[in-house]
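Chapter review: from sequence to fold.
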Amino acid sequence: MAKTEQGNGLAEKLTDDGKGGSDGPDPEVNGGDVPGDVQVDKYGFTGGAQQDAADSVGEIPIDVLRQREAKWLEMLNSWDKWMAKKHKKVKERCQKGIPPSLRGRAWLYLTGAKVKREQNQGKFEELDQQPGDPKWVDIIERDLHRQFPFHEMFAARGGHGQQDLLRVLKAYTLHRPEEGYCQAQAPIAAVLLMHMPAEDAFWVLVQLCEKYLPGYYSTGLEAIQLDGEILYALLRRVSPVAHRHLKKHKLEPILYMTEWFMCAFSRTLPWVSVLRVWDMFLCEGVKILFRVGLVLLKCMLGSQEKLKACQGLYETMELLRAIRQQYMQEGFLVNEIIELPVSEKDIEKEHHAQLRRWKETHGDLNCKSPPRMHGAKAVMAAEPPSRQDLRQRPTIIVESPPAPKTGGEQAEGIKGGRKTKEDSRKKTFLPPVETVNPSPPPRDPSPLVNHVTVRGSRESLSSAEHDTYL
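The token string follows.
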């Protein structure tokens, strides 16, 4: 159950057949062919299973999106206060979906990676300049073309996206040499790079590996095996029918949930659903991954009628490899995740029970992982940040235009004509605000961002210019 170096089945499940010699995208990875007339969707995909349908429903009205952006800007400007006193509201806004223009910055704050970056100034550059262990670098380089080959950021061999992916993954092997590299880290890092520059993606990856999913990518992958048993135990309560079916056919959890959890469903769900799941996962922690897995198992195997099509182990595995689109659709899935009554307490209780069973059958764990933290609030409580660490650093200031004056105000303005321009500006303009949108922009840019030149998604974002501001 280990990594590429150990060469066994679990890691190999996360790649193609190992040939991977062609320069073009591998259709087997994303489950589709690149269309002849290439069209790029609003997320940057040119084809494959993740490409957004042109007629997708559920688009947020632009005025609602602007309101949500304003609310998120307010939260990010006073992040410590919101997390301490209004965490429930933060959670609700993550469940509604983080505005695309602010998603990268919100993920950075939710995971505690912003604080980590500020407390380790220059660390990423130092790691980036090192050559890295040739063993890991070679394996990482062979995996680069497999990560979202239908996304315009990663389509080109040796392009900026692949270069940054190599930098982030190599830096992690130097940061945690005892762990090295696991293939499931590559799609995680790729998703992050679609939303933020390499340095930020590195620190979010560190937080995910150390706080959210500790032990998932260590040699032996014992943590993912334990979580598989936890998922199986929770399924008994959520869907007894599905649980009995899997038990009858001796279908071990590790066979169907490994890629789900280790890649945080980034290779399983439609892209719009991936982003919504990640918004909630980074806010609330691993319970969201458990809920997604439980919802999918319940929907696919939760009734005798549904089980008629899968009478054996092979048929069941095939069914779970091809989840029906209706169950992965954004609106349905998000609602089911929110409604499913599985809490951190439930997971921790089952974790202790499975840990006792593991010790009885396998002995002590080989990997001593730190305790898992259930989401943003737990991460912040464990390492309270300073206001300085949370401070935002805008590079472009946009001032709001002055409101039109009424007749009375105009007359008053004439009388007070001796006032300085500085006084006038103090009354007229709002404090500077900022948002970030390093991911490919939507095809219908809002009026507020039309004046901003957005760089092509194949172009790398450096730490010094990592934000596009409103």
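Two observations follow directly from the output. The radius of gyration is 24 Å. The chain has a mean pLDDT of 79.
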